Amino acid sequence: MIKLDNVSKSYNQTRVIDCISLEILKGELFVIIGPSGSGKTTLLKMINKMIQPTTGKIYIDGVDISSIKGELLRRRIGYVIQDIGLLPHMSVKENVSIVPKLLKMNKKKIEEKVVRILDMVGLDPSIYLNKYPSQLSGGQAQRVGIARALAADAQVLLMDEPFGALDPITKSHLQNQISRIHKKLNKTIVFVTHDIDEAIKIASRIAVIKDGRLVQVDTPKNILSKPKNEFIVSFLGSDRALKKLSRLYVKDFMHKADRINLAGKDLGYLTDAVTKNYIWITNENDILKGWADLSDSDQDNKRQVSYIEVDYKMFAAGVDETLKDTVSKMLWHSSKVLPVCKEDGKLIGEIDLADIITKT
Ligand SMILES: Nc1ncnc2c1ncn2[C@@H]1O[C@H](COP(=O)(O)OP(=O)(O)O)[C@@H](O)[C@H]1O
Ligand SMILES: [Mg+2]
Predict the structure, then answer these.
(1) Which domain holds residue 322?
(2) I need a surface site. Which of 36, 222, 224, 247 has the fewest CB within 10 A?
(3) What is the pLDDT of residue 264?
């Protein structure tokens, strides 16, 4: 889809990009990561001809882009930057319509499209269509920036540290949204960041660059488990093992959970009925209510039972949650096993720290 062949860029004899060859496949969410000044922005801007390489060639769908007019190329490639550059005198609707208008799409179609895309990026059209950029929070403005890039129907989206200035919660929501949009629309996305957690969370492949050179191009899993050199190890940080968990999901590690509906029964009978040292307690609709702790015995070795009520919203893991979040919850609740519940609280399984340790 996008191919860089021995691309270099120099400013006054200084090479800021040094012989980079690399192929980005159709439908990838390809992340370029490196420290500040390593050449990420330069590399990205060469893909849409905002910067010309000094030597080397870039191909999109097999076509050498030096033969395409920059302006025409940029209409086919969405571009999102941190300071999203919304036009302040235009409403959200007008900002998102810019490229479709340039492409002379008819008015009704543009309107339908803007509504659809605002929905997709998580902005309620009935609230935001007619707002102006000055009335938006940083996260909302960034969503409009993404909507604007999507409205062009470009098959390629370039994103340069788009979430760099956002607070952690908004950032995490937008990362999830980009992953969803990427899966849904099957676009090729080239995403620049200096945030390794972000890269591991969203990338299909990661290219690590340093001083304008490629250090390693690989899947997040391989970068984490087989870092090529000390630079990458230090870039990954000391919590490499935990980072790996941010790519793994509860649904792939959970197993069946025993539960008892206690309605009308006395806790005491559990000491005979249950052999394990705990059991989940649910109501008649299978909604998690708590658990019975059967790990204690009295002096006569008779098993004791105590009931611990929990709020599933706080206590349970979700099927689509990452193992990193789940392990964090386990530490928080001092529990090696957690129930897995649906959003409505229905108990669907359990997840065990021992499985996470042995199977990841
Ligand atoms: N127009 C320019 N003139 C001279 N040097 C530049 C210019 N643009 C970028 N550079 C230099 O190129 C290097 C890479 O910059 P950049 O691609 O912006 O890095 P990153 O996005 O990874 O922070 C930096 O050392 C920067 O100072
Ligand atoms: Mg940059």
Answers:
(1) 251-359
(2) 36
(3) 67
